[in-house]
Amino acid sequence: MSRRSAEPDGPRTRTRRSTSVTPTGVRSHTSPGRTSREPGASSTRGTPQLVVSERAEFAGPLAALAAGIPWVQYHWSVSQLHEYRDAGAEEFSAELHDMGFAGIPAPHQVLNPWPVSLWSPHASEYLGLRHVASSGEAPIPDWAFRTPDRPRICVTLGTVVPRATGNGASEFMLTMLDHLAALDVELVVAVDDDIAARWRRLPPAVLHAGRIPLGSVLPSCAAIIHHGGQGTALNAVAAGLPQLVLPWFDDQFDNGMMIAESGAGLMLSPPETTPEAVVQSCARLLEDEKHIDMAAALAREMALLPPPSAVVERLTDL
């Protein structure tokens, strides 16, 4: 089982496209990926007084600048990752210049869903809010309500890694599952259904392989092995699970290191990730009370953060 070592180096350069900015939003005329997709289309429903957008999305701040209203950034990752805003400022330099800005100004407020003890120094002035799981239309399976006879381990590489790496992630996952099956555990694999359908026969220890609502399933698990993405990591924190993080790229390395440093989990770098190391690390998570206790402490800390409904009241004062 091998993986390429991928260091977080910021977003790739994107091709310029024709984009217009109006007081009601940004209208993009070619496929913009994750940046801008006609937020002004909903302007007929009322005039917004505040824009909230995530840190790698730029329709929000551009629309707020054009309308002269505050904007708030939802910050994912424990990393600062200034490269995203730098890339956005370069990509939309012409539009920003037309509005009289040399770059994308700092947001009026930044929201951080990570437990405060995991915040880096750059996040000291952020506003915390509690993570709320979003599972889309994935149904909750019956087995999620049953207490397993053996420790249940969730294994996932998220939705981006399996598609961005071709067959590499699938081969890695299948080899890992074969070795984990040697432990006396029950394995639940969270992966898109179309990818799971292409896999060869899975070991008998695998109870399920397909799309699942992590926020509803993880409370029935004893530990989780994952790639270090924010959504997966925070769902695991909320469930109080010890985590084994196997990062592939971008902020996943920093997220994994922060979880490991907190004592609530372990991280293996790409060169360290062998089938034997994964099995040994998983066994440590199940047996070491320190990891179990620290994971439970992080869950309690997250539960003390204000829910989004309470944070909205703070934002109306901006």
TrEMBL record:
Domain Erythromycin biosynthesis protein CIII-like C-terminal: 176-318
Biased composition (Low complexity): 18-27
Domain Erythromycin biosynthesis protein CIII-like N-terminal, first and last residues per copy: 47-158
Family the entry assigns: Belongs to the glycosyltransferase 28 family.
Protein's UniProt name: Glycosyltransferase
Tagged with keyword Cytoplasm: no
UniProtKB keywords: Glycosyltransferase, Transferase
